[in-house]
Amino acid sequence: MREVEVAVVGAGQAGLSAGYFLRRAGLGPGAGFAVLDHSPGPGGAWQYRWPSLTYGKAHRVHDLPGMPLGEADPGRPSAEVVAGYFARYERAFDLRVHRPVDVTAVREGGGGRLLVETDAGTWAARALLNATGTWDRPFVPYYPGQETFLGRQLHTAGYRGAAEFAGRHVVVVGGGTSAVQLLIELAEVARTTWVTRRPPVFRDMAFDEDWGRAAVARVEQRVRRGLPPQSVVSVTGLAATEAVRQARARGVLDRRPMFDRITPQGVAWDDGRTLEADVIVWATGFRAALDHLAPLRLREPGGGIRVEGTRVVKDPRVHLVGYGPSASTIGANRAGRAAVREIRALLAGAPSPGAQPREASLAG
Ligand SMILES: Cc1cc2nc3c(=O)[nH]c(=O)nc-3n(C[C@H](O)[C@H](O)[C@H](O)COP(=O)(O)OP(=O)(O)OC[C@H]3O[C@@H](n4cnc5c(N)ncnc54)[C@H](O)[C@@H]3O)c2cc1C
């Protein structure tokens, strides 16, 4: 058993940003903090992004604090660019990420400590910064008949490029950016059909800061109420980039309503329409990868974990960074800074900020 002040689970944008601010707060790797990550190399989830998601096609990858990514070839896969940047970053700030280390459970350890159980032993920590992202929990909704489909089904997490679908009919499900990017690529080599639950909303305007803030605020309200977060991207609408405008003009982004059933040969609607298909791609997003926190019983009746800022309301030793409103590269940076500020206060014995209003109101 190793004792540590702070355990950081996950070494993506959120975990590395937290590591940077922990170092700035005077904690060192070893007794101060340990970053644990189960992926084989640096890069967080970016190391798994499909090779055709080039750096130029990513929305925007914000710099980690203290060291810019610098110039990068927009034609190179984001997976390579970001993994290389994160590797340099870990070295520059001596973050000493333990990998591959899989955190299987976090439970109460007594004496104010949390036990972080892994396949490489247990760490006993006074605080936990959870930065496990969503990539490990691809979400596929259930539709009747799904198990009878004779073609291939895959989630975007398993997509490696359009070439293997040449000449096929591919049904792409989902209204997000990933669906749009995949449709544009697949339409070059395959026949495609796009289905979404709600009509997609394309935004012609540039994504400015005010509007980004408003989207983040909506996700924040949900997690404050203990509801599962929506992705920030799901409330922003789809950017009508030049590539998107051209694809719309070619009819690639003509959308049909969601089908009602899956048949062995394809998909079907309750009004009697059917469509044969070889492949169904589920571009239906991800959920927060938080199963290892289950022993702490942090979930609310609404199904989510209530957080104030990044602090879990039910257990102020636990912070979720890169969760809900901070699930973007810029949000993850800010969350790392804010979480470390609160954890420093916690380690110094200051009362949890969440406890203050109640005490004040009882006193007053
Ligand atoms: C296809 C796609 C494209 C995106 N493009 C953009 C974009 O252009 N700009 C943007 O701002 N955002 C983008 N996002 C959102 C993106 O998820 C965030 O921006 C950011 O990369 C998430 O960082 P993170 O640190 O929270 O999580 P991740 O990068 O997912 O890192 C989590 C880390 O935790 C580790 N981990 C998970 N569970 C465990 C465990 N139990 N034990 C140990 N380690 C564990 C994983 O191995 C991983 O390294 C995109 C998301 C997707 C899916």
Automatic annotation (TrEMBL):
SUPFAM superfamilies per UniProt: FAD/NAD(P)-binding domain (SSF51905)
Name of the protein this chain belongs to: NAD(P)/FAD-dependent oxidoreductase
Record keywords: Oxidoreductase
InterPro entries: Auxin_biosynth/cation_transpt (IPR050982), FAD/NAD-bd_sf (IPR036188)
